[in-house]
Amino acid sequence: MSSESRTAVVIPAAGRGVRLGPGAPKALRALNGTPMLIHAVRAMAESRAVSLVVVVAPPDGAPGVKTLLDDHALPERTDFLVVPGGESRQESVRAGLDALPPGFDIVLVHDAARPLVPVDTVDGVIEAVRDGAPAVVPALPLADTVKQVEPREAGQPEPVVATPERARLRAVQTPQGFDRATLVRAHESVTDNVTDDASMVEQLGLPVVVVPGHEEAFKVTRPLDLVLAEAVLARRRANDGF
Ligand SMILES: Nc1ccn([C@@H]2O[C@H](COP(=O)(O)OP(=O)(O)OP(=O)(O)O)[C@@H](O)[C@H]2O)c(=O)n1
Ligand SMILES: C[C@](O)(CO)[C@H](O)COP(=O)(O)O
Fold this sequence. Notes:
Elements (H helix, E strand, L loop, with lengths): L6 E6 L17 E2 L2 E2 H10 L4 E8 L4 H10 L7 E6 L4 H10 L7 E4 L9 H12 L4 E7 L6 E2 L10 E3 L7 E3 L3 E4 H10 L8 H6 L5 E4 L10 H18 L2
Parallel strand pairs: 1-4, 1-6, 4-5, 7-12
Antiparallel strand pairs: 2-3, 6-11, 7-10, 7-11, 8-9
The structure holds cytidine-5'-triphosphate and the ligand C[C@](O)(CO)[C@H](O)COP(=O)(O)O.
Cytidine-5'-triphosphate binds next to helix 3.
């Protein structure tokens, strides 16, 4: 893949945000007064390598999301498309891929729910795809020990069946980066429910590599994550003041 390869980003933003509690769809909730989705779009458009962002909106929310993008300042060098999403993250990513025009050889998939990923992480992923990896994931080592359990009904103690060696585990983030043809093939061939796109490429038997993630690329999932996101933004504002 050459440095001339053009990069597009698909942002799945069609989730409801059930774990965040009642309210608007998660991507539309505000952080420091600005919708999470706008933070995520800006984080992608900050990379000079990104020339198209495809936002996958809640199924009946595409016109509203289009208006939202029109109403917020976004870099002029980046084009934007909005398409309706599906019932699962996988379906939503697929809808974004289907909308991609020709001419983009590298595709990133980035959760709207990771609004604060720094641009260096985005560029690191793109660079690794340009260097020839068909699939790239940013990731961090774990702080906790992880146990594999035999699931039981809620409230029942769960027997531990294994303790994977922590030093070999990574917590995977987005944006995940792909050679476009590989990602399209993965979405066409893999029908199992998976929780990220890279695992679909793994199922094709193709290599996936890890590059450094960033602690500010965390996923806003539960209410406490909103507190952390506001704190990160406050720290950025304070640092910008100096
Ligand atoms: N049908 C879906 C489900 C999820 N997503 C997107 O996938 C990303 C990661 O999903 P997650 O954080 O799990 O978001 P939700 O599905 O909204 O969260 P929850 O499971 O708590 O409802 C989010 O940007 C979310 O909007 C999507 O585009 N379409
Ligand atoms: C893609 C992802 O963000 C990588 O960690 C994660 O798997 C999304 O999971 P969710 O089930 O949509 O929360």
